[in-house]
Amino acid sequence: MKRIPLLSIAILLAMCLVFCVVGIAASGSQTGVVSTFISVAFFVTAFIVIAVYCKCPNCGKRIYLGLFKAVNCPRCRRNLITGAKTKGKKR
Hints:
Layout: H1 3-25, H2 30-53
């Protein structure tokens, strides 16, 4: 798993939050409606990026939970960057 998709997901979710706040602040006007639709579009795009790019390079399992702090794959217990097997018990 590369760091570029993580950065793009963080940017997409931040833009979703920004447009959501603008939509709430400008509620009742055309700007509020447009901001809400843009926010939903960014949110959907973030999930598409997660589904396509955020998976283990060794076993192919998608990593959803703990995406920003994941170091090892939950299924094969290999390091996501080096591919080395993790020692120790599985919790």
